[in-house]
Amino acid sequence: MIKSVIAAEENACAQYKKIIKAVEGEDYVTQDLCIRLLADEEAHLVQFKGFLKEYSS
Predict the structure, then answer these.
(1) Is the alpha carbon torsion for 8, 10, 14, 17 positive or negative?
(2) CA-to-CA distance for 37 and 57, rounded, in angstroms?
(3) Are 6 and 48 in contact (CB under 8 A)?
(4) What share of the chain is helix, strand, coil (3-state, %, to 5)?
(5) pTM higher than 0.85
(6) N or C: lower Cβ tally within 10 Å for the chain?
(7) Cα dihedral 29/30/31/33 (nearest 10)
């Protein structure tokens, strides 16, 4: 289950990065929102990788 969540978080991060690049210099509101969401997703990713490490030890 944790591995599935990690995969989903990685996919979400990749999508936000694509959106950030796509709107760069054109839509600052969307870019700012995606940067904030990306930060949240990256924090979740770190958290779940920690869970995986904890449970696989």
Answers:
(1) positive
(2) 30
(3) yes
(4) 90, 0, 10
(5) yes
(6) C
(7) 90
20 contacts 29 by C-beta, under 8 angstroms: no
pLDDT digits (tens, 9 = 90+) for 4-47: 999 999 999 999 999 999 999 999 999 999 999 999 999 999 99
Task: Name the one residue in this structure whose structure tokens are 């958290």.
Answer: 47
Q: Compute the distance between CA of residue 49 and CA of residue 17 in angstroms, rounded to an integer.
A: 20
Q: How far is CA 18 from CA 5, 7, 31, in A?
A: 20, 17, 10
In a domain, 57, yes or no: no
Residue 23 lies in a domain: yes
